[in-house]
Design brief:
By secondary structure, the protein is mostly helical. It is 59% helix and 0% strand. The protein has one domain.
Length: 138
C-alpha cells in the first residue's frame, strides 16, 4: 500500500517547470542542498561501517525513518526517494521563484544541522573507495 501512495505522489501532477528555467540562485541553492544531503549520506555510510567493524561503535542513526542501525541500501533508497519528492515539489509550475528560493533556503538551513552535528561527534568524510578501517586511528 505504501508503494502505491509513493507512486501516486510521484506521478500526481504533470505541470512542471524546467530546471534550466529556474533562476541561477535557485539552481545553486538546489545543488547546495543536494551536496549537503550527499555529505550526510557519506557520513551515515561511515557510521554504518563503524557499526559493522566495531561491536562497541559509539555511533547510531537518529533519523527515525532509517532506524538506529540502517543498511547502506536503506540509506540510499530513503534519501533517493526524499530527493525525488523534494525536486518534484520544487519543480512545479505553480510555485513562484521566490517561494522556491525560500523553500531552498529553509532546506539548506535544516540540512546543515545533521552534517555539522555528525562532524562534531567524529563522523567525518572519507573516500568511499578506501575502506573505512583505513581511517581508524589505532
Amino acid at each position: 500500500m505504501k508503494w502505491v501512495l509513493i507512486l501516486l505522489l510521484l506521478f500526481s501532477s504533470t505541470a512542471y517547470a524546467d530546471f534550466k528555467d529556474w533562476t541561477k540562485q535557485n539552481q545553486r541553492l538546489y545543488l547546495s542542498a543536494v551536496t549537503l544531503h550527499a555529505m550526510d549520506a557519506l557520513q551515515t555510510f561511515a557510521m554504518i561501517e563503524c557499526q559493522e567493524t566495531n561491536p562497541h561503535c559509539p555511533y547510531y542513526e537518529k533519523n527515525p525513518l532509517l532506524g538506529t542501525h540502517p543498511s547502506k541500501g536503506r540509506v540510499v533508497l530513503t534519501m533517493g526517494i526524499a530527493q525525488v519528492l523534494y525536486f518534484r515539489m520544487l519543480n512545479k509550475d505553480t510555485i513562484t521563484s521566490r517561494e522556491r528560493r525560500n523553500l531552498l533556503i529553509l532546506n539548506n538551513t535544516l540540512a546543515i544541522y545533521p552534517v555539522w552535528n555528525n562532524e562534531q561527534v567524529g563522523l567525518g568524510f572519507y573516500i568511499p573507495i578506501i575502506p573505512y578501517r583505513n581511517f581508524i586511528k589505532k
